[in-house]
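In this supplementary section we document a worked example of the pipeline. Step one takes a protein sequence of length 241 as its only input; no multiple sequence alignment statistics are reported here. Step two produces a three-dimensional model, which step three serialises into structure tokens for compact storage. The input and output of this example are shown verbatim.
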Amino acid sequence: MKKTTLILIACMATVGTFAQNAANKIVTLSINGGTAIPVGNFSKTDYADLKSGYATTGGHFNITGTYYFNKNWGVGALVGYSQFGHTGSQSLSDGYKEDSGTDSTTLYLKGNNHMLSVLIGPYYRIPAGNKFSVDVRVLGGYVNTHLAGFQVFYEDYTDNAMSQKESSGGGFGFQVGAGINYQLTKTVAIKANGDYFSTKPKVDIAYDNFVVNSGRRLSSYNQAINSINLTLGFAFNLFGK
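The serialised model returned by step three reads:
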């Protein structure tokens, strides 16, 4: 009888432990959107500097799933899309005019700069009262980068058009950031996020009708592409409390 009682107590304690652990497990899905601000070489507009990316502020959108296996630690996966504007077109056009020695040049953009990222990594949640919490995350994975092209028309050339083609390449990327969560209900929260994003793709660049005196020419763009992503979103608890 005593042995049976001890076994029952041990079983009840085990069930209680599993129940407590299950109660701490949370699965969330969040949808976020906002601003992507390029920094570093990617945002430069210096014609003479081949590292210049001529990118300006654009938008960022992501869907993130996170599994918290206790009240603090979790692991998440993010699928994100960033698209950047283009700046410095006149500077680029003027540079080609000076290098080619023509009286005037006209430049037209082709496509846009954008990136698709798939990242995973650890999350750490810091409770800050009944409604608020702070998430800190470090994510890494694969990023596909697409760079805009352009076409330059030279006034005095017989073949008066030269094109830098749109181009794509991939590479490792990472993101480090934090988010503030405010719980609206047991299953819905609003989020404010700030993240530093970086990738260094190998993008080969090709041209049509490029001649010796055309001007600035890149064979590849192998520079770090960095941005600060500021987003707002909603998080939904799919499992747990």
